[in-house]
Design a protein that fits this description.
By secondary structure, this protein is of the alpha+beta class. It has eleven helices and 19 strands.
């Protein structure tokens, strides 16, 4: 036997010994005492054979290994299941301790973060959403075509609405002049961006363009669960919390009206006294002698008061009529209880927040908005890191601000 052949045999025996040792270590918790003893002896014999470079014993050693540890049924399936179990454990560990994925549920935090929303093509900040073909635009920007040209002159049949769709997008079918039309979105969202029900007597003209934009599924982000336990919460943090046990003064439970998770901007810390006058939120921190504008205490609020891109400042109550139970007028003040937080939506005119249902207990806080990972809009990246889009906010129309359609 020449040198190179002997070297090759030793290498093969060494690999066998290492594989047997790895098996002994990996299955230590499920092997019997007899199996462990036999495996230890097999490993010693393999090492002796390796030193001699004798290839004749390799087959005998392999047969002994099979007798000691017979192959398990579906070994590959079990191996993949082990890998998947470990991956899931790591993923759930990360989710539970550090980062949790979250989908923006509503429009109350626009234009900082978006729920399902309509996008106009003219002047939009995301030009590529309208330049790329629909399948690719949908993947990158979570959009779906929302286009409707009136097929025939006539009126809208108010009895013709039919809801459809799939797991990702709702659709709404309806008839104009007896012709079936379809737009993406739930009925309230279609009514908001299309305006088709704003005038029941309206006569639509053939060829009239009702909508020519896109509907987006909204922002998906990671929530940072860790830093609030290290650095605490600050005014201006975009905060995710659960609605469990949050009850309005009238006894209504927030969780019954909405989902389990909410996202708002933290406006009041424990001990803060708040008031809203002339569209401005004022804060008097615990022990402070006087009120200050919120943006003086937390500069992140400056964009909320910019009057650009959909930001509106703060109003005493959502909607056009006084409602809610807190800060309803310029004369009302509210002191945030200990271990509780006062939350406001950036889309103040159309936000259900602490003005309506009160404060959020510390135990309900999940974490802070950290990173928008989808879609690839101007908000992609670190959450709440963008300034206002440089267009005037303008006046509200049909429950939203048209300037928000540009993002």
């Amino acid at each position: 036997m020449n040198f190179w052949t002997k070297r090759k045999n030793r290498k093969a025996l060494r690999k066998f010994r290492e594989a047997a040792a790895a098996l002994r270590h990996a299955d230590d918790d499920i092997l019997s005492s007899a199996q462990k003893t036999d495996l230890d002896q097999l490993i010693r014999d393999a090492k002796n054979a390796e030193s001699a470079g004798d290839p004749s014993v390799k087959k005998e050693l392999e047969e002994r290994l099979v007798r000691i540890c017979p192959p398990r049924r579906f070994a590959k399936v079990r191996e993949w299941m082990d890998i998947i179990a470990v991956a899931m454990a790591v993923a759930f560990g990360i989710r539970g301790l550090f980062l949790q994925p979250f989908k923006i549920p509503t429009s109350s935090m626009q234009p900082t973060l978006y729920g399902i929303h309509y996008m106009k093509p003219e002047g939009n900040a995301n030009k590529w959403a309208f330049k790329l073909p629909q399948p690719l635009s949908g993947i990158l920007f979570s959009t779906r075509d929302a286009e409707l040209t009136v097929p025939q002159t006539g009126t809208l049949d108010m009895e013709s609405f039919r809801i459809g769709g799939n797991a990702f997008f709702d659709t709404l079918d309806f008839e104009i002049a007896g012709k079936t039309c379809r737009l993406p979105g739930a009925p309230n969202k279609v009514a908001e961006y299309s305006g088709i029900v704003s005038d029941p007597e309206r006569i639509f003209q053939a060829g009239e363009v009702i909508t020519n934009g896109k509907l987006s599924l909204g922002d998906h982000l990671f929530v940072d669960r860790l830093s609030i336990n290290l650095a605490g919460l600050r005014r201006g943090d975009v905060t995710v919390f659960t609605t469990e046990n949050i009850v309005a003064p009238d006894g209504s439970k927030l969780m019954d009206q909405s989902g389990f998770y909410y996202i708002k901007r933290l406006a009041g810390l424990p001990g803060d006294t708040l008031k809203i006058a002339d569209g401005q939120l004022y804060v008097k921190p615990a022990g402070a002698p006087e009120f200050k504008k919120i943006q003086e205490l937390a500069p992140v609020f400056e964009k909320v008061y910019s009057g650009r891109g959909g930001y509106q400042g703060h109003t005493n109550s959502p909607g056009d009529m006084p409602c809610g139970y807190f800060l309803r007028t310029a004369d009302e003040e509210f002191t945030v209880p200990e271990d509780e937080y006062f939350m406001l939506g950036d889309n103040t005119k159309f936000s259900s927040d602490s003005r309506i249902w009160g404060t959020v207990p510390r135990r309900n806080i999940v974490g802070k908005a950290f990173f928008v990972f989808w879609p690839l809009s101007r908000r992609w990246g670190l959450a709440d890191s963008r300034g206002a889009y440089d267009v005037p906010t303008g006046k509200s129309v049909r429950g939203t601000f048209p300037s928000m359609y540009l993002q």
